[in-house]
Amino acid sequence: MRGADPRVVLGLHRSRHERRLLTGALDVGVTAIDTSANYFGFRSHEVLAQTASDLLPKFALSTKVGYFPRPDRVEHSLDPARLFSAVERAAKDLGREPDVVFLHNPEQSLQEAAPCNLDVLALACAALADSTAKGMCGAWGIASWDPSSLPELIEATTPKPSTLMVRAGLLVGMKTLDASDALTEAFGMSSGMVWGMSPFGGNAGATVWDRIDARVFLRGSAALSRVQVAFRAAYHLPQVGTIAVGTDDPAHLGELIGALAGEVDEQVIHQYRCLLRDRSRGQPC
Fold this sequence. Notes:
12 strands; two-stranded antiparallel ribbon; TIM Barrel
């Protein structure tokens, strides 16, 4: 078993939730897993408890709340009472308190909440902060696929999360990168408190990774594969301290951990962001 590396989290979105994946993750040094109440057909928590209850104490465990099942559809809600109950149920179904509970894609509900967005978000954050204070989870955070609507809603009185989770990687557009940076700044958080997710846009085997040679982003990267280099660069697009990545292959996790030794050329990252900005806004750097 390799030494643990806290910068890589095994994400269970689209995962088959097999026990061998968790044991394999531990073998390569990944000791953190991330799931959500709505993953695996809203059964992720129960399946983890049933198949790997003895393994869960070996992981730092994060999950998310905000999506709820209905007979005819999936519903997103920021109702404080529902969120509080969801955190309580997560701990019960998992058989342990999660280390972090994320408010899952709050922008989904905020689209329908105008003009009271600010109060809606603050109250939802307060519900998760209350859950944390009552010992139902170790900490709370916000996970956002599209954070562009969130920074302007943050006030000095808005409860502050311990962690943010945003999209990261070469496929993330400038609008999302800027919004992620703005949200981090609005909460006064350091980049080490921010997690990236979906570094390969949901598919590390997509043909785009064969067509794009990302080794320009790293110094002395000849020994790393194109997938490894793309993963290493994702820690700087935007600046994050940890990345959650999904796979059903423990060997893939080991390959990605091997990429962490690569040294990122921050000047090239800056130039790349300038190119993205030029394309999206028509403004030179």
